[in-house]
Design goal:
By secondary structure, the protein is an alpha/beta fold. Helix content is about 35%, strand content about 15%. It contains ten helices and eight strands. Strands 7-6-5-4-3-2-1-8 form an eight-stranded mixed sheet. Helix 1 runs parallel beside helix 2 and helix 5 packs across helix 6. It is globular. It starts with about 30 loop residues before the first strand and ends in a 9-residue tail after the last helix. The protein binds adenosine monophosphate, zinc ion (ZN) and fe (iii) ion (FE) (2 copies).
């Protein structure tokens, strides 16, 4: 029996044309077969690493990177799955950072996962995320019948805990229709239950990735309200920032255009990726892609760990 379910996206062997992205703020000729920003159940994606790799393959990708929040624990499974599919696997992470109270995400590729400073930072972030999530659950518990056990039931062992797990628990309890509604109606800072977690500043995050031999790329850098001030961007470039994720559904065209000019001026890498979270977000594998030329630059620049090549 065919285990694929209706509405599950393209079947094996069928390939949806990727939308480009490394060229404009949004549209253009499709030119990439690399999706370098995808999440698994090792953080807040809903699928195991091997399933994420298979989803990238079904979308026509030849290269994928697993970039779970603040953890590398999914690399081994993803690397094995990539070998099985004859795909290129680029080990990655989405490192949490914070600038003046605002969350900044820094993608890291091909760094040494044993680098002591980077390990200490990710362990501290993950620890802080647990305490923060417990506090948020207590806050929500003032108004809803809701406990930490509800969240544990939605979280894989050892996963980096985030608001998406709390969202899934709220959905399971019937307090919200889906993740997005839970964010909008309960988890958004303006609702009063929100608590922040520890995260290094962007300069520290970029420096740690660079010191560990990796390539640092600012994730969704032109999202609404997310543009970093030019002075900070220049500081990050001085510290060795590799590039910007210009192809991402949350970027505005205007912000992406400004960052493209900055990237050209400093000869930086530009990427495009889906930020796939399984069924946790509408983002589809390959909806934005990275060109072969930019992928080659990342692979040439990253010296802390090796990609899996087909
Ligand atoms: P946290 O880092 O724990 O504060 O949670 C933020 C994460 O939640 C982000 O990395 C997103 O992947 C996810 N997220 C943010 N807003 C939404 C939303 N409206 N719907 C689903 N996921 C979201
Ligand atoms: Zn996420
Ligand atoms: Fe992000
Ligand atoms: Fe992400």
């Amino acid at each position: 029996m065919d285990t694929q379910q209706a509405g599950d996206g393209p079947q094996h062997g069928q390939v949806e044309p990727p939308r480009d992205v490394t060229r404009g703020g949004g549209s253009g000729a499709p030119d990439g077969t690399a999706d370098l920003h995808m999440h698994s159940s090792h953080s807040d994606g809903t699928e195991a690493p091997a399933e994420v790799v298979a989803a990238a393959r079904r979308a026509g990708m030849r290269t994928m990177s697993l970039t779970d929040h603040d953890t590398t624990s999914g690399w081994a499974e993803a690397a094995h799955a990539a070998r099985t599919h004859g795909m290129t696997f680029v080990p990655g992470i989405e490192l949490s950072a914070s600038h003046e109270g605002r969350s900044v995400h820094v993608l890291g590729y091909l760094f040494d996962p044993e680098h002591a400073g980077l390990r200490r930072a990710t362990e501290r972030i993950r620890d802080s995320r647990v305490g923060r999530a417990e506090t948020m659950v207590r806050n929500i518990g003032r108004d809803y019948d809701f406990t930490w056990d509800d969240v544990l039931a939605q979280t894989s062992d050892g996963a980096t805990v985030g608001r998406p797990h709390i969202a899934d628990a709220l959905v399971a309890r019937g307090y919200a229709a889906d993740r997005s509604a839970a964010f909008e109606e309960i988890l958004h800072p303006r609702r009063g239950y929100f608590v922040s977690h520890y995260a290094p500043d962007p300069a520290t995050a970029v420096s740690l990735i660079v010191e560990a031999g990796g390539v640092a790329v600012i994730a969704h850098p032109a999202g609404r309200g997310r543009m970093l001030p030019p002075g900070l961007l220049h500081e990050l470039i001085r510290l060795g920032l590799g590039g910007f994720e210009l192809g991402h559904r949350e970027n505005t065209d205007e912000g992406a255009r400004a960052l493209r000019r900055l990237a050209e001026e400093h000869d930086l890498i530009v990427t495009g990726s889906s930020d796939y979270h399984g069924s946790g977000k509408p983002n589809r594998p390959g909806e934005h892609t990275t060109s072969d030329a930019m992928l080659a630059r990342i692979i040439a620049a990253g010296t802390g760990s090796a990609p899996v090549l087909p």
